[in-house]
Amino acid sequence: MEKGKLYGISVGPGDPELMTVKAQKMIQSCGVIAVPTTKGGGELALDIAKGLMSLDDKKILRLPFLMTRDPEELKKSHLAVAEKIEEELENGNDVGMLNLGDISVFSTFSYIMEIVTEHGYEAVVIPGVTSFCASAARLGVSLTSMNAPLHIIPASGGSLEECLDLPGNKVLMKSGRSIPKVKEELKKRGLYEKSYAVQNCGLPNEKACFSLDEMSDDPSYFSTIIVKEY
To answer: CA 23 to CA 35: how far, in whole Å?
Structure first.
């Protein structure tokens, strides 16, 4: 029996209309749709896909991802997820794993793909619209200009202070619980007034903040901050 293929399908930041035509076609062609689920049962990537098409004829493979920074626990979680996917691939089923934004940016899929391909299965990546590009469009601002660099920074990372000192514009992703700290660091560097944000980009409760004073510090929000020095 021919083994199935794993497709990493980017569904964009939230608005179903921002999904690419290719992503839609791949979802329709895969018999099994793998869906990351949160501890509370959230399935945002699946909800986005359902905003454009019916998935009633698909087998939905729900994948609980562990939310921890412990490398050993993360490895175990990734191996368990990969094992579930490989069972479908071994049975000849193509699996489309849905991912928010674009798979190449802070995506858990990259870890799963590494495991699956090491085990001899084929994986294909379908790109998509990133949350920071969609946020910049919503705010009506550019991310780059001339030769100035753009830095994509995980706001919850330990090197936030060093990253904010880099020359060029910055995108601060995964702000969540770090919003108060980010605001404080931006004020220290005189960047607070040069910063914008979008919370829940592309979702029904989207909020564009042309001043960080308008931001909610609620960690449950998907928050993207854009720091424009140029």
So the answer is: 14
